[in-house]
Amino acid sequence: MDNTPDQKPKTPREDNVKPYLKYSGLAFQMIGAMVLAAFAGMKLDAHFQTRNPWFTIVLLVLAVVASMVLVILSLNKK
Prior knowledge:
Helices cover 77% and strands 0% of the residues. By secondary structure, it is mainly α. It starts with 11 loop residues before the first helix and ends with a helix.
């Protein structure tokens, strides 16, 4: 008898579910990062009383760039 745990073979349905969960999680992560960046930017703009929403713009751009980097890294990783 060998001591390896019994592993049941994966069904095709189990293999197809994981990518959907992974990418839907990435979508929620991107949305969360952008909402957080917009909220923080608006608070910083209000605190420093800027005429133009520079903090909001910069933080949103950084959030989009960071999200895209994470998506690209996730797509390259298997």
